[in-house]
Amino acid sequence: MRPDPDITPVPDYAALALRVRELAREFGFQRCGITGVELGTDEAHLRDWLEQGLYGTMDWMARHGDKRARPHELVPGTLRVICVGLDYGREVDEAWHNLADGERAYVARYALGRDYHKLMRQRLQRLADRIALEVGPFGHRVFVDSAPVLERALARNAGLGWIGKHTCLIDKDGGSWFFLGEIYVDLPLPVDVPAGAHCGTCTRCIDICPTQAIVAPNRLDARRCISYLTIEHEGSIDEALRPLIGNRIFGCDDCQLVCPWNKFAKRSDEPDFRVRNDLDRATLAQLFAWTEEEFLQRSEGSAIRRSGYERWLRNIAVALGNAPGSPEVVAALRSRRDSDNPVVREHVEWALARHGQG
After folding, report:
1. Which residues are involved in binding cob(II)alamin (predicted)?
2. Which structural domains are found in the chain, ordered by start?
């Protein structure tokens, strides 16, 4: 609802923009910026990516392609987007140690604690409610990875960081270990200056990718990406890719772990992001032993619930196939040899064959 200039004074939008940033920090966001709704160049990039089929089986990417780059179509009346970032950084050395121990499971750092979506959505809604106290009722909608939103492009335009060659957003003062969220608003707030790119000639993220999924700077082939394979992809994983997955059972962080800008990342002690279920130290065999009931109980409020129980077992079977041979590893695999799920059975047999137990 727009203020009627004949009845109420027009707000000082420049002052309101400053207030929005203050409030964002009060509600626990480490970064905040404001941008417009023009994403023409990014829309063309997205269309090209979709046309090449690089999205794998994520059909929802294709279904909502245009709306992602057109905020005013997704939410009619949108004039600006308030973008925020919330740090979740952890010690990089711990991640490397985990990856180096083939008997332990590696879970992407963002998924070790509670799912960030609910926490961020609540904070963003509180921020929107607080803005309403400043300016009166206004049109808005909160998003946290919950609709077709081109969030990294919007965040870049809002000055939160640039899109690195690995396609993650990088803040030169804070690295890339942070979550993104948005509020679409119908307020004509002044916009921030977009962030410039600072990757230079560095290609560490491209070079380290275990499956070479970063096929060119800013071009990710999701069909080869371990995050896609372990979280989004249903069914069998390409046998040629299985040995490259290592002990990564939910997501992958390698491209961020090697990024030199992450030396500036802020370590977070947000209670919701603290490790649950010892996921930063659990062995593959321990996690493979979870019953479906245990999985559902332990994954409640966690991002790992997204994979589902069968994919969880499939992923761990692959990792056990890549683990150093030991009686414990072989015993764990044999315990699932008669799984009711054919995909799990297939991956268990593949893993056993890797240990000479075919």
Report:
1. 68, 145, 169, 180, 227, 252-253
2. 13-90+114-185 (3.40.109), 204-264+277-354 (no CATH)
* pLDDT one-digit tens code per residue, 218-258: 999 999 999 999 999 999 999 999 999 999 999 999 999 99
Radius of gyration of the chain (CA): 22
* 169 among annotated binding-site residues: yes
Q: How far is CA 207 from the centre of its chain?
A: 21
- Is 227 known to sit in a ligand binding site? yes
Residue 184, φ and ψ in degrees, nearest 5? -80, 130
Q: Is 4 annotated as a binding residue?
A: no
CA–CA separation, 75 and 70 (whole Å): 9
pTM given for the model: 0.93
Q: Nearest CA to 319 among 94, 111, 105, 97? A: 105
- Catalytic residue, from 145, 186, 207, 338: name it: 145
Residue-level length of the chain: 358
Q: Has 12 been annotated as catalytic?
A: no
| Cα–Cα distance measured from residue 54 to residue 228, given in angstroms and rounded to the nearest whole number | 11
Residue 209 marked in a binding site: yes
